[in-house]
Amino acid sequence: MTDHRLEEVLETLYLRFEDPSRQDIGSPGGEGLRLAVEHGYVDDVTQQLTETGRPLGELVVRRHRLAECLLRDVLRVFDAEAEEDACRFEHILRTGLEDRVCTLLGHPTTCPHGRPIPRGDCCRRAEHDGVNEVAALCDGRAGQTGVVAYLSTRDNREIQKLMAMGILPGSDIRLMRLFPSYIFEIGHSQFTVDRALAEKIIVHWR
């Protein structure tokens, strides 16, 4: 399913299925609707998603809302164009890639608009493995362990400094102490950073 017109129809119909009371959702039509009916994703009479089309519509909505979180939390995009950018991103997130983005973001449950993000297999695996939240190093508890998710900085000097400590996405990390400085352990080495730098280290906490 790579036709954007088809995806937009499935997304629109899933949003209507998710919340029938919403008044800001238009009615689909055109070539996208014809394709959806032809593939058996939409009932030609009721123009509602079939049992086959519903999970596909849910997936498109999941990708869109994950794209919104990616733009806000990682790329730091907050302007009026964020929604348009999210629409473009959702079509880029092919099957499987959205789970990587979801994992990167710590399996968020809601988008920036407060709407629920449909769960994926990665969310269920994370729940089983005990990875329960993503937050900055400075928000962890003494003794808490986790995995580095990403570095929330575009400053090359900060990136180089953190990488020199071995702080890379996927690295195991343990927060040892919070005051007066943040002491953490990577591998067999311990390092100390101030709060300004601790805020840039985003961790999947266990």
Verbal overview:
By secondary structure, the chain is an alpha+beta fold. It has 2 domains: about 5-125, Arc Repressor Mutant, subunit A (Orthogonal Bundle); about 135-205, SH3 type barrels (Roll), CATH 2.30.30.90. The protein is about 40% helix and about 15% strand. It contains 8 helices and 6 strands; from the N terminus they run ααααααββαβββαβ. The protein has helices spanning about 5-20, 30-40, 55-75, 80-90, 95-105, 120-130, 155-165, 195-200, and strands at about 135, 145-150, 170-175, 180-185, 190-195, 200-205. It has a 6-stranded antiparallel sheet. Helix 5 packs across helix 6. It starts with a helix and ends with a strand. The mean pLDDT is about 85.
What structural keywords apply?
206 residues; alpha+beta; Arc Repressor Mutant, subunit A; SH3 type barrels; 2 domains
